[in-house]
Amino acid sequence: MNDNGPATDDEEVRLTGVLTDIARVAGRDAAIAIARKFGGVRMYFPLKPSKDSWLVKTVGQEKAQAICDELTAGRCGLEYDLPLGAFGHQETTRAKVDRLLAEGRTQRDIALATRYSERGVRKRARILKDREPDLFDD
Q1: How far is Cα 78 from Cα 80, in angstroms, rounded to an integer?
Q2: CA distance 57 to 34
Q3: Helical axes 107-114 vs 89-102, angle rounded to 10°
Q4: pTM to 2 decimals?
Q5: Mean predicted confidence (pLDDT) in 41-63
Q6: 34 and 21, same structural domain?
Q7: Domain count, the chain
Q8: What letter does residue 136 receive in the DSSP assignment?
Q9: 44 has which bridge partners?
Q10: Sign of the C-alpha dihedral, residues 89, 95, 96, 97?
Q11: C-alpha to C-alpha distances, 61 to 49, 64, 68, nearest whole angstrom
Q12: What H or E segment, with its residue span, contains residue 14?
């Protein structure tokens, strides 16, 4: 993974909001593709997407039509706010901090590499430490 790319494994991504509806009718891959490209903004879903529409270009005609059928209920085009989910800046940066902590980098180096504060890195390290199972618990 490069430092600018997504920091999440698509199979572990939790879909929320309208993305769950999209995944149900067009597949998880379609919902993730839409979230990656357009998460965090409001997008228009027409009754019948044209071949030049953002949606067809993202997921293909058949899936685009299935999505529009679901989201418009065959009545009229609608706008939806698409969730950022795991593809937002905060989530990808947090994943990068987690990776650098696991690699044993110093908190100062992590803060400088991610634009997190050192305090934020310390807090994240504590959270991750608290999640580790205790080998001596029953």
Answers
A1: 7
A2: 10
A3: 150
A4: 0.62
A5: 96
A6: yes
A7: 2
A8: T
A9: 79
A10: positive
A11: 8, 5, 10
A12: none
